[in-house]
Design goal:
4 copies of one chain form a homotetramer. Chain A has 2 domains: 56 residues, Orthogonal Bundle (Arc Repressor Mutant, subunit A); 141 residues, Orthogonal Bundle (Tetracycline Repressor, domain 2), CATH 1.10.357.10. In chain A, 80% of the residues lie in helices and 0% in strands. Chain B binds a DNA duplex (21 and 21 nucleotides) through helix 1 and helix 3.
DNA sequence: TATGAATGAGAATTCATTCAT
DNA sequence: TATGAATGAATTCTCATTCAT
């Protein structure tokens, strides 16, 4: 394996690289793309500026990469929460729990996705659109299935999915601004489940 | 009469000032606070850099002022749409129509509020929080009244209002990204009305 | 007199022009050339910016002109105080009284000359050098005469004159920084007379 | 040993920092605070603009710092020249030699103090006042002692000290404008010693 | 790999000056 | 004459990026 550095070296490298990415998420989440400086990031990660450019080509590329990766992580968690269940109530519950879980324990990730990457670099616009689209689709798919099975009343599931996605985001952001998000998380999940089941006109109630 | 601050002169001044503010809204809405440069703004308004500073003290002050003014305008329109009606279905209809009307005919205003002012200057954070709070309260008030009158089932109206506000925003943003927002507006309003009445557990259906 | 505007007009013009020059002296004296803005000057004179450029070609020209005029005024006052007397003690007394009188009652003039025009525009450098040279010469001339008449002991009168000029300036600046310059002026004059007569080795003491 | 803040590196940094400070002194001395631009300074130091801001927080801070440091240096030199001697003639000689020595070999320092910092930034005003006060006090102290010992006749020593300080400054500035200051320095010192001993009414002559 | 000094393009802001009215 | 809106060159300062060590 000549092209590969030793485990020890790789581990150290990965350690530093990971530290910088986590620092980046925090800094971008807190300040947004433009207000965050490379200096902010390297100070948070406790490395030198030059080190940043050893691991990442530039600020924009890192940010877009971070956004993609983070978006994928959140989407997969939500989809996992949805897909492991069979009926709409459980699916919504599963997806929401996954979402709010991440929001509470990794707030920087959610903040990066929801506020850190708004109105920034052109190259991000398409990534952001894709993320929103995937997020909406994640909620639309169970709705379509439920509609087929007459578990919900007829409706424009696309629009319902958009509305649910927006509703969840807003509640999550308000939750994160609360003094103790963790303690309120469970109630928020329950309120949103109730809200959603009513909103999708769930016939099983 | 060597010089006269005549109506004509004053009117011209106001005209130019207004033009610059509108240009600013467009640029801020499109690029967000940080990415928008003074040069962008003055080019959009077709004036020189110095002219900007003749009318406005600095970029930040203008932005915050713009945000406040715009937020007030949107809030009043929505509240006007709500308060001129008596029952929840009509109130939601009125508020939504006002919101989507502005979104379609003054998209920059909505974009400035929803995306332009995210993660920007500290002095804006409180304005933004106030705006979101007022927006949520605008929806919560009719819910509380309806709950008192048993027009909706018992629920955490605060959370419902948050969810509705977020739902509306997301649908509006998706609408604005559509190829022809105007043609879809009516359907979007109707879908959201239906969504909302289900979501708030309106008992009159 | 076709080329001449009416008395009334000219008077008004002179009034305004004079007001601006006096305002300029005050502003330049207080802030120095660079820190003083045209806006400062016209506000102090209560006219519009355009008016400034009707009377004066530009900031630098006005400043240099002001400096020259002011320097001439001070020099003539000092020289008048010197030349109207016959012997060194009276000449020093006369010159000093004139200087300190102006310093106390027209502090802006002295401040403009001593501090307002330091290290500023190249075109002023020569004017300033000329002023200092003339000021020194004003004191050297009576010294030379006194030396010829053996009223003072042999010395390098040029150097003595430099030293006296510097001594007077410093005392004047300290006087102007005093809480009540006027009340201390007389004592300062007397101290400086004594100092000077000793310093020039006046033989008549 | 990927990187080492070795002596060599640190020395280089100090070297560059020192070079920039010296360049700053020269530029400020020549043009004064306002007329001196960052561009002037970095060109004189042959570095890029950013380098200036790597070493110094901003123009004003550097200038004030430079002024303080320079004032302290000059004051200590003069006081050292004074305090190492016992009687007024030797004290004046010592202080003057120190002053003129610096003026001739470090003209920028003296010019910065005497002309570069006049009528500039508010934060400098107090530093300048302190410097003048300390300078005057440096001359007043030996005068007070001499007066106690009856080595000079009764007089207002504060005023005499002011006058001497001003006299020295003026002669020094004239000396610096001479074609060959160094060659005239000795004579200037001697003339000023004579002038001063007469001016303070030294009784030992 | 890692460092941080050095760079310079670009941003915000100021202000002398012009000119249509 | 007088006005003040409009201009844009010049200035200060920031920050992403590079590179010698």
């Amino acid at each position: 394996m000549p092209y590969q550095s030793s485990d020890k070296t790789r581990q150290k490298k990965d350690t530093k690289r990971t530290a910088m990415m986590q620092a980046s998420v925090r800094v971008f989440a807190e300040k947004g793309y433009h207000a965050a400086t490379i200096r902010d990031i390297v100070q948070e990660a406790d490395v030198a500026v030059g080190t940043f450019y050893f691991y990442f080509p530039d600020k924009e590329t890192l940010f877009v990469h971070l956004y993609e990766e983070t978006a994928l992580f959140l989407l997969q968690a939500i989809q996992q929460g949805i897909q492991s269940r069979a009926t709409i109530p459980h699916q919504i519950t599963g997806g929401l729990q996954a979402y709010i879980n991440i929001a509470v324990y990794e707030p920087a990730i959610v903040q990066l996705l929801l506020v850190g990457g708004v109105g920034t670099v052109p190259s991000l616009a398409v990534k952001r659109a894709t993320f929103r689209e995937n997020l909406i689709m994640s909620w639309q798919r169970p709705l379509d299935t439920a509609l087929d099975n007459a578990h919900i009343l007829p409706q424009n599931t696309r629009r319902t999915a958009e509305a649910l996605a927006g509703a969840f985001d807003e509640v999550v952001l308000n939750l994160l601004n609360a003094p103790d998000p963790e303690s309120e998380a469970e109630a928020a999940v329950q309120d949103l489940i109730d809200f959603s089941l009513r909103a999708v006109a769930y016939t099983g109630l």
